[in-house]
Amino acid sequence: MRIETIQGSRCPACGLTVAPPAPFCPRDPVAMTSVELEGAGEIVSFTTLHSPPAGFRSPLHLALVALPGGARFICHGAETRGLRIGSRVAIEAVNDVYYFSHLGALDRARLFWRRTGRAGDRVHAIARSLAKRAWKGRERVSN
Amino acid sequence: MREVWIAGAGITRIGRRGESLSDLMAEAAHAALRDAGLERPDAIVAAAMNPEEFVGDGNFASHVATHMGLAETPAMRIETATSSGAAALYAGFAQVAAGLRHRVLVVGGEKMTHLDTPRVSELIGRSIDPYERSYGATMPALAGLVARALIARNGDAPREMAQIAVKNHANALRNPYAHFHRSVTIDEVMDSRMVADPLRLLHCCPISDGAAAVVLTAERAAVRITGIGQGTDTLALRHRDALTSFRASRAAARAAFAMAGFGPERVDVAELHDAFAPFELISLEDLGLVPSGKAGRATLDGETALDGRLPVNPSGGLKARGHPLAATGLAQIVECVWQLTGRAEGRQVPARVALAQSIGGLATNNWVTLLEAS
User: Fold this and answer.
1) Interface test with A, best of B156, B192, B238 (most A CBs within 10 A)
2) A21 touches chain B (CB under 8 A)
3) What is the pLDDT of residues B119-146, one digit of tens each?
4) Which residues in chain A have Cβ-Cβ distances shorter than 8 Å to B191?
5) Left, alpha or beta for B333 (phi > 0: left; psi -120 to 50: alpha)?
6) ipTM, two decimals
């Protein structure tokens, strides 16, 4: 699995990170600086449009994904089965259009080991991840 | 700052109308002028969100002023997307408060039903951030993202959202000017066609034609505008960190209550921008009308029903009175004036202080207005 790099910008004043890049921070009248963001993150929310606008096929899956570093990113997806708020997804670009895909357990593990450095951090991160999951399990998304 | 009063109010029947936009706006304007006992105002503030594309008319302030027989009265047009009517009220209020004008006619309208739904959706969708639009985001799509986040926070939200539609349809049954005159049940709402999962058809307001108008004056009248506040936020939804609360509503409420010198506890009746049912739940909390996290419970318990502690959307709201975009912010004011002066026949609630909240775009440019009976 290849992890996409997504171009973004960060505000030197308030720290807001946005993707795709923007010349000015939406909240401060200052120029933003370029940053590169890892194309994997957590689902903030998602929806499926059953009568999408002209030029899009129905059903159209849309998600808002929180990337590492805080930027939120809008993208398409092939499906939303099993998807929940908080689900880990990878982002891929196909012809400059971004798609999310639900990460399997193996993908998650690989990403996880790649990102956590020293052994101590790893243990800490595992504990945090487990705690977070137990918490998230309580708020099941119902439709 | 001079005190600003509402001397007259007028509205057209909302719904599918055969008349032109200028005819509808003239109908509402003449009704408001008649109600105020005024032949000519000193100035006109007109609101239409997108007459260029909905009906093909530009230079719209002059267009509509001339059409209603007031070509020699100074007129201007104001636009803040779906809250344009409320913004026009502010522009008129500012002119009177500053002493620049004495009597100002504020009129808003929109004509949309002659176009097909995809075209209307596309035109309204132009108020969305261009990048998000390039991914197919429409207003219902963004509201769907908001609705799912609300459900994740509170598992009972699907029933609560459905109850908003049930309540507002029930209120509209008593409003002769409303778009819909039919009741719906919770089950009908929850079984209606999926539009933007988890948002269903009966969670969404209809496409409507109509117009509304008020006459503002510096002379004492039955209702005074005690506070107006504007609040704004980023155009892009992805640039915000909260989906279940709108900064633009909170900021507008803060400004309006600061101007009025009182708090939300004095509000007796409210007209809120329920373009999508979850927005009424979010707005109740953003405006401080119910404690944070309690809007759903208050709705299911009937606190916001016509006979509740705080009746919300007695007119039927955007959901059932209808949402002719730039007319809506003023249609809310007309309902509040009627409630405060005992003229809301069939749906009258006891009220001295009324609040109207209008949302522009996906909560990028919102307004809160406070009115008090004299």
Assistant:
1) B238
2) no
3) 999 999 999 999 999 999 999 999 999 9
4) none
5) alpha
6) 0.94
